[in-house]
Amino acid sequence: GKGEYRHFMLKEIYEQPQVIGDTLNALFNPAERTITLPALPFALETVERVTIVACGTSYYAGLVARYWLESVARVPVDIDVASEFRYRAPPLQKGGLALFISQSGETADTLAALRHCKAQGLWCVAVVNVPESTMAREAHAVLPTLAGPEIGVASTKAFTTQLVVMAALCLALARARHAIDRATEARLSRGLAEVPARAAEVLKYDDALHALAQEVAEARDVLYLGRGTSHAVALEGALKLKEISYIHAEGYPAGEMKHGPIALIDETVPVIVIAPHDGLFDKTAGNVQEVIARGGRIILLSDAEGIAHVGAGVAHAVTLPVVDPFVAPILYAIPVQLLAYHVAVIKGTDVDQPRNLAKSVTVE
Ligand code: F6R
User: Fold this and answer.
1) 2 is catalytic
2) CB under 8 Å to 24, separation ≥6 — which residues?
3) Between 238 and which of 29, 52, 249, 281 could a Cys-Cys bridge form, CB atoms 3.0 to 4.6 Å apart?
4) How far, in Å, CA of 286 to CA of 303, rounded?
């Protein structure tokens, strides 16, 4: 049941410190700070290219993973939504690695892509939350997310646990490929090990996010901006908002604003910026100033340093804890979930069962 919570979605958001910890503990030895993946039928050091296929929120987990796998494990990544991948006829390298990310393990397009890749001779690994699902059965190997049953149609804890699995896979690949030195590996592992505790800290900002929800609930359109892994979080934030509040929202790479969407900016369009103080922060801060100069209302999700450096004119800022940039997308996913949740509650929608949506999309 929902216990003390009003909706399954809220309960599942609050379960994240626990289920992130469970997922991590199955892959990670905290004393030695090393990743141990379940047995794989191929050697990680032979992986030269990764293909990622998924839908919806699971696809956004794949987008985060692309940044990680390319920048940390130095492996080229091809990623697409399953409904496009299936019909693109991409040339695939026999013996390559394909990852299928799916909460349900039953999504029709993702499953079809898995079957296609398997027939082409790729190693197929399923990152799934339902261990007895079709994808888990048909893949060569499974990397499980231990989120437990996700009842709310809007995916929350499945997303953050998918990210934990992908981060662990990234570290294991980076080591196998000799792509990172020991010091970097130790720093990234430490960052990952701290995620459950940091997630609990981030949940304490629920009231601050709730306080912003009224303004967002009054909007007709909302933009979410970010760069790097925060771009994927922006896309996820926009998807969460539109699916449960029915407010039109778009996620954009912050640097793409000036190529079109900046035309939408006026004082009625809240612009939610995901920007931990990382290596891309100054670039995003420049985009924030461009929005402010056009009368846009910025809601900034950052840390104390980011907020100190963004400059004047931000309408609202939420000061989140300082986190390692590597794991920031896992932690910044939580405030965008909470914000969407509170907006939907104000709007009076059916948060756990939004209209027109099914938990598991088993038709093409
Ligand atoms: C969004 C959402 C959907 C799913 C998508 C894929 O909150 O729930 O976008 O992420 O339908 O589903 P799975 O992960 O089961 O393949």
Assistant:
1) no
2) 164, 168, 192, 193, 195, 196
3) 249
4) 17
Q: Rounded to an integer, what is the distance from CA 24 to the centroid of its chain?
A: 16
Q: Is residue 320 classed as helix, strand or coil in its secondary structure?
A: strand
Tokens of 31: 């004393």
Q: Tell me what ipTM this predicted complex has.
A: 0.99
Pairing of strands 28-29, 34-35: antiparallel
Written as one letter, the residue type at 175 is: R
Q: Which of 8, 53, 55 to mutate to test the pocket of ligand 1 (most atoms within 8 A of CB)?
A: 55
3-state secondary structure of 353: coil
Centre a 10 Å sphere on the Cβ of residue 165 and count the other Cβ atoms it contains.
25
Q: ∠ at Cα 194 (18, 181), nearest 5°?
A: 135
Collapsing DSSP states into helix, strand and coil, what is residue 88? helix
**Ligand 1 pocket by Cβ (under 6 Å):** 55-58, 102-104, 107, 110, 154-155, 239, 243, 360-361
Task: Give me ligand 1 centre to Cα 102, in Å.
Answer: 7
Query: Residues near 262 by Cβ (< 8 Å), separated by ≥ 6?
Result: 290, 291, 294
